[in-house]
Amino acid sequence: MLKGLHPLISPPLLAVLAEMGHGDELAIVDANFPAATHARRLVQAAGLPAPQVLEAVLTLLPLDDFVSCPAAIMTPSQGRPPVAADFQQALDAAQGHAVAIEDIERFAFYERAASAYAVVATGETRLYGCILVRKGVIRP
């Protein structure tokens, strides 16, 4: 344990977050997502809900404010999945204001996740429990 570090941030996840640069994306995906197939770098967060992993990540990761939507979720054709509300709440709480989230079709999400800096495989069991976040900058 380290002082001031969220307990869900594992050493491999901390390394990935520190290595990422401005504009890099991180995919936080559910238990059904083919993470090992699509990940350039894979971090395991087995058993943890995706929104809780997102909350932990956002304690360290600045969101990109140079883009209109610094986050994107996998969205089925019937509309946003229930887990989207939990993602929205975590983003808004971390930023202190409403954060715009892009909706992405499943296979387009797979493609973007494959080009993400890393994929965090969670234990999220709710369908479509997947989100991409784009790293921003920390200003002096």
Helices, strands, pairings?
Elements: H1 11-19, E1 25-29, H2 35-38, E2 42-45, H3 50-58, E3 71-74, H4 83-95, E4 101-104, H5 106-115, E5 118-122, E6 131-134
Parallel strand pairs: 1-5, 2-5, 3-4
Antiparallel strand pairs: 1-6, 3-6
Helix pairs in contact: 3-4
Structure description:
It is a single chain. The chain is α/β, with parallel strands linked by helices and 140 residues long. The protein has a domain at 23-105 and 121-134: 3-Layer(aba) Sandwich (RbsD-like fold). Helices cover 32% and strands 19% of the residues. It contains five helices and six strands, in the order αβαβαβαβαββ. It has a six-stranded mixed sheet. Helix 4 links the parallel strand 3 and strand 4. The longest helix is centred in the middle third of the chain and has 13 residues, at 83-95. The radius of gyration is 14 Å and the shape is globular. It starts with 10 loop residues before the first helix and ends in a 6-residue tail after the last strand. The mean pLDDT is 97.
